[in-house]
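Sequence only, no structure available. Ideas?
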Amino acid sequence: MPVRRVKADEAKRLIDEQGYVYLDVRSIPEFEAGHAVGAFNVPLLHMSGGGMQPNPEFMEVVAANFAKDAKLVTGCKMGGRSLRAAEMLAAAGFPNVVDLLGGFGGEYNQMRELVNPGWTQAGLPVEQEAQPGRAFAEMRTRTKP
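Reply:
I predicted one. C-alpha cells follow.
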C-alpha cells in the first residue's frame, strides 16, 4: 500500500486536529538550522565527510520513541528522504504515517521552479531549538537498557 503524501497545510491540520506529530528525518545540522515547531528529529541519513550515510539506528530509535499506532508526518528537505522513511515505517508496521510533499524547504524542478511548496513556503511555524526530548541525541538514549 503506497504512503499517502500531503501538502504542508494538510500536514499542519493533521498535527493540530488529529494528534499527528512531525518526524523530521533530515540530518542533525539541517534540523538545528530550523524545523517545524514541536518536531522530533530522527535522521534517515547522517552527514559524513561531505556526503550522506545511512543512519543504522533509524528504525530502532523510531520504534523506541513511538508506538506502532503513532500518527506521524514524515518530513525532510524536499520530500525524497521522508518518502523513503515513511515507506520504511509503513513496511515495519506503522499504519498511520503520511509524508510531507515538498518537505521543509520545498521541492524544485531542474529549472529551479518550485513545484511543491514545503513547510516554510506555506508560512508555517518554525523554531531553531528542539523542544525537550525531541533532538536525536536525546531520543536515541531511549534505545539503551
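Residues 27 and 43 are 5 Å apart (CA to CA).
Hope that gets you unstuck.
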